[in-house]
Write a structure and sequence with these properties.
The protein is built from no helices and five strands. The chain is an all-beta fold. It has a domain at about 40-85. It has a five-stranded antiparallel beta sheet, with no helix packed on it. The radius of gyration is 18 Å and the shape is globular. The protein binds zinc ion. Zinc ion (ZN) binds near residues 20, 22, 37 and 52.
């Protein structure tokens, strides 16, 4: 048994390639419209959501881009009613 013989398989790790299969495709993480991407994970109990383009969207409207860039919250929380479980 020689497992090392099959090393022609190249690992495809592209940083900018998103797995978006939506139609139309979601805006990329560096586009101004990135928040319009589909949600792929939603964790309201932890206060964040993951968008299809790899952007982490926080409850306070702050964002963490896939390249590590942090976007400060840009929507005042006071404008919206935060529903708290009574
Ligand atoms: Zn998508």
């Amino acid at each position: 048994m020689n497992h090392a013989s099959n090393r022609s398989t190249t690992t495809s790790q592209r940083k900018n390639s998103t797995m978006c299969q939506h139609q139309p495709p979601c805006p990329s993480a560096d586009s101004a419209d990135r928040e319009a991407a589909h949600l792929v994970a939603h964790h309201p109990e932890q206060g964040w959501s993951l968008l299809c383009n790899g952007v982490l969207l926080f409850e306070d409207t702050g964002e963490l881009l896939p390249d590590g860039q942090v976007v400060a919250p840009h929507r005042p929380l006071g404008a919206e009613h935060v529903t708290t479980a009574a």
